[in-house]
Amino acid sequence: MDNLAAVLHGPYDVRIENLPVPVINDDEVLIKISCVGICGSDLKLYSVGKCGQDVLDGPVVMGHEAAGVVVKVGGNVKGLKAGDRVAIEPTQPCRKCEYCRTGRYNLCDEPQYCSTPKGPGNICQYYKHVADFCHKLPENLTMEEGAAVQPLAIAIHACNRAGIKLGTNLVILGAGPIGVLCAMTAKAMGASKILMTDVVESRLQTARELGADYTLLIKREYSDQETVEKIINILGTRPTVTIDACAFPSAQRVSMLVTKKGGTVLVVGIADTTVELPLSGALLQEIDIRGSYRILDTYGPAIAAVSSGAIDLKSFITHHLPLEKIKEALELAKSGAAMKIIIHIN
């Protein structure tokens, strides 16, 4: 049985290879993959061989935003059976470390996260995963939406960490997929005004269609203070919450300069290891600065939000390509011309 997969060997070196079909243990399920989304972290690995703490040290199957159909279940698996459609939460935490034991499995010391040196990805025909991190899809969700649940779950965790609530005035720096999903999530959570910034006008147009009340096109010649003043002028106030969803040093500086006293800066973008920031001013104004890492108990809420119609993922998905065009898909995503690309496997 074939198991064609997109294998990354190094920067810009992705190949379609036929791999052995995985053998499952008693706690796992074998999944025939249907759809996988292309993520910003995929692009970082593809472009430079590194994303945050993960450094490519050998060939790895790409992809971690997947949905598919269960074809085989392990002996201990309860609640799933062959034929079930599932969205795959792309982590397999150790369940033993301090963070797993205290309920923060997203910070697990040995997470075996998909498409990292510690865990294979799922841009492939067959993939195995621990059963309790596979979530059944309601009948009214497509496989494409099931794949896009993963970045939505990241956005929901980010908004939870940011403390979004009714009446929040919010600025989101970066109108890529995660930034736009944060806007859609915040709107569903009751945010009052949402302003988004980006350096690409087409992304801002999509942001306006999907949730942003206001947008600001950032030009390279703008100083940090000019950007701050333009945001305040458009929004009519300083934001109570600012989310950095692009991780450019300038965006992180602006986030700390623009946020209201006593407000919150939430960083969900993966930035350089060292960034120079106006930290003292932010701390003297009691601005809380928080990180958001991956997903924590938000797959269920994400699936429910899409199923109920509270969040429309179909409008968020803009491009569809087959597995054999994986390199074309990565280059398209890298260009910034697409919002969310779905790779169709089978």
UniProtKB/TrEMBL annotation:
Signal peptide: none annotated. Keywords: Metal-binding, NAD, Oxidoreductase, Zinc. InterPro entries: ADH-like_C (IPR013149), ADH-like_N (IPR013154), ADH_Zn_CS (IPR002328), ER (IPR020843), SDH-like (IPR045306). Its cofactor is Zn(2+). GO terms for molecular function: L-iditol 2-dehydrogenase (NAD+) activity; zinc ion binding. Residues 10-343 form the Enoyl reductase (ER) domain. The keyword Membrane does not apply. One of its GO terms (biological process) is sorbitol catabolic process. Belongs to the zinc-containing alcohol dehydrogenase family. This is Sorbitol dehydrogenase.
